[in-house]
Amino acid sequence: MTTGLSGEMTPAARRGRSSAPPALRVAGVVLAFLFAFPGVYLVFRALRDGTGPEGLLWSARTLGPMWRTLRLAISVSASALVLGTGLAWLAMRTDLPLRRLWRVLLPLPLVYPTFVGAAAFIRTLNPGGLANDVLARIGIASVPELRGFFGAWLVLLLMTYPYVYLPVAARLRQLPGSLEESARLLGDSAFAVFRRICLPHAGTAIGAGTLLVFLYTLSDFGAVQLMRYDTLTRAIATNYLANPPVALALSLMLLMLAAVVVLAERWFSRRMPDGTRSGSQRPLDYHLGRWRPVALATVAITVFASVGAPFIALVDWAQRGVLRSITGDRALAVDYASIADATFNTVWVSVVAAVVSVAAVLPIAMLVGRHRSRTGSLAHAIVISTFALPGLLIALSMRFWTLRTDLVLELLGDSTVLLIFAYVVRFGSLAMGVSVIAVRSVPDRLHDSARLLGAGPVRRFFSVDLPVMGPALGAGAGLVLLSVMKELPISLLVSPLGFSTLTTRIFGSFEDAFIAEAGLMGVILVVLSFALTWFLVVRRQEHT
Q1: Burial letters 54-92, b for 16+ CB under 10 A, else e
Q2: Which of 253, 221, 264 is nearest to 118 (CA)?
Q3: What is the dihedral of CA 488, 386, 265, 216, to 10 degrees?
């Protein structure tokens, strides 16, 4: 037991030993059950319907999409590992020209839903598309059509490399230059220093980012749907109404695959060297020399392909549609009132889901961060594990649950409550880590002072905890909000009748070949996402 000079327990010891209030423990158990419910129900339904190993689980109808999914996920994550790590090193540790500008632009692909990037590449390279017309003027008559595996790989790589770039860039920024200077003095080349010093210290960040890309690729639906590449998610969406047993078997396969990936990552992460060493010295910058033009061209092409090209395509489609409707040539297939309604729905449902997500994970964060409760640790693990549960599986679970349960169908079948619940389960894990840090940032002395002044638990929470935790909780809510705005499968399958968001409207317009309408709404969604990313992520980093 740790005690102070007076023989009393120190605040740290009191925090470690304090028992959680019964109401907080009950809340933690209930919330853990709610977060686990979609995955558990999906497994229960699949096994009950006879789609386990003795049924369709290992049939050709499931193994084919599974191998295609594995091929795509491995290819995208391996490519993102190389591209994201290389871009992070160029932007953070070299004399790359305009590197402050590249540091702002390189994370921006995160504002695009993957299906928007897929549609941009498909439509601009097709006959009559903007890129096709430009290439024709310089003598290039035909370009390969982006479909199937290659198209899905390219789009997902360009849209997901920031998941590797961001953590690796943060780690390289913290790495002290003394380690690399010592290696250079001992005769190591720049490449040897990067391989022996930078890579081991950034190993955990590289692994974490690559895992995110792998899981994102497993769960992606929009890009593979438009590219017509039959992965598990596309096969599930195709069969969930026409052949529910096959859809359930495919869902169970996808769930098992995500679980294996997460367990394998945890096993490897325990055996990787600890890369948390840091220092106050300024990081060492490398001179690219004659490689500067090559490095600059690589970064510029990546930014243009992942950020500039999709946005130019969206603006081109939007202005064509607007001009066409103004001149009376042909009216837009969707009126401006419907666009405004979809925009309003996107904003309010994202805000509500973000607030509810933070409120849902906060009791669990308090059990873990303040009371060190075993109940809280179990609930924390369940919430974090839901990140590996693809949105399509959550949507499918909610859809089967409502269709098979008359009471639920009557109460929640045509309401946004079920939609918000699905969003919270899908993205609540994004707010969990930040919430735990926020809880631990509240000084014990403030609680002691408030207790001595007679403040009860509720009053201490609103007068002491919330003011201190507010900024961090706001950052967690921002992450959830940005993710909900881009979510497609849950929005498509769980939304009540007549309720549309920008993502569902855009995806439907692409599927129906209403390109101008999709471009107009795509510009609105990207601008909203960019504004929120700037205020919640980029601007916040500039002030830290």
Answers
A1: ebbbeeeebeebbebbbebbebbbebbbebbbbbbbbbb
A2: 221
A3: 0
Question: Terminus-to-terminus CA distance in the chain, angstroms?
Answer: 36
Dist CA 395 CA 456 (whole Å): 41
Spell out the per-residue pLDDT of the chain, length 544, in tens. Answer: 444 433 444 444 444 445 777 888 888 899 989 998 888 888 887 777 655 444 555 666 677 888 899 999 999 999 999 999 999 888 887 888 888 888 888 988 988 888 888 888 887 766 556 666 666 666 666 666 678 898 899 999 999 999 889 888 877 776 666 566 665 565 555 666 666 666 777 777 788 788 888 888 888 888 888 888 888 888 888 877 777 777 777 777 787 777 777 777 666 656 555 444 444 456 666 777 788 888 899 999 999 989 888 888 888 888 877 787 777 666 676 777 888 898 999 999 999 999 999 999 888 888 887 777 788 888 888 887 787 778 888 888 888 888 777 666 666 766 788 899 999 999 888 888 778 877 877 777 776 676 676 666 667 776 667 777 777 788 788 888 888 988 888 998 888 888 889 998 888 888 777 888 888 888 898 888 888 766 665 555 444 4
Angle between helices 148-160 and 162-174 (to 10 degrees): 30
Q: Which of 363, 541, 352 is nearest to 465 (CA)?
A: 363
- What distances in angstroms separate CA 318 from CA 125, 156, 519, one per listed residue? 17, 24, 5
Write out the two tokens for 238. Answer: 């195709």
Between the alpha carbon of residue 140 and those of residues 131, 133, 134, 309, the distances in Å are 11, 9, 9, 18
Q: What are phi and psi of 166, to 5 degrees?
A: -65, -55
Residues facing 3 on adjacent strands: 9
Whether residue 224 contacts residue 234, with contact meaning beta carbons closer than 8 Å, is answered with yes
* Exposure b/e, 473-497, CB count within 10 A at least 16 = b: bebbbbbbbbbbbbbbbbbbbbbee
**Cβ(115)–Cβ(507) under 8 Å?**
yes
Residue 284, token pair as written in the block: 């060492």
Q: Which residue has the tokens 């009557």?
A: 410
Strand partners, 94: 286
The structure's pTM equals 0.80
Question: DSSP states of 106-132 as a string?
Answer: TTGGGGS-HHHHHHHHHHHHSTTSHHH
Copy the structure tokens of residue 101: 């500008």
Q: How far is CA 460 from the centre of its chain?
A: 34
- Return the SS3 of 286: strand
CA atoms within 13 A on the CB side of 233: 31
CA distances from 46 to 60, 194, 358 (A): 17, 48, 31
Paired tokens of 232: 């598990």
**Segments of 201-268 assigned E as strands:** none
Instruction: Determine phi and psi for 520, rounding to 5 degrees.
Output: -65, -50
Q: Which two tokens stand for residue 75?
A: 């290819």
How many alpha carbons fall within 13 Å on the CB side of residue 323?
6
